[in-house]
Amino acid sequence: QVQLVESGGGLVQAGGSLRLSCAVSISIFSSNAWGWYRQAPGKQRELVATITSGGSTNYADSVKGRFTISRDNAKNRVYLQMNSLNPEDTAVYYCNGRHVLYQPWGQGTQVTVSS
To answer: Which tens digit of pLDDT belongs to each residue from 88-100?
Structure first.
């Protein structure tokens, strides 16, 4: 069973930054593509950033230029650097596979951006 453990969220003022971390317990971490997802209150979960096994990245238009996804294969970790945060970024953030969604999802990490 895969374990996904997200951390690094918190309360930040608009314009601030946070760095999220996701620890993944899976032996095939390095060969998988991974993504960061978020779910705001009353909204569906959305994919915000992805990274392939080769390190290629892709972003939702809403976060492009502000968020950066990265990975450390030696540590089985995926990161999300979030800059220039705004209140619309408030959500619970999760990591999971890009092409395969592992169950169960992690508990997520809450990001709250105050105006």
So the answer is: 999 999 999 999 9
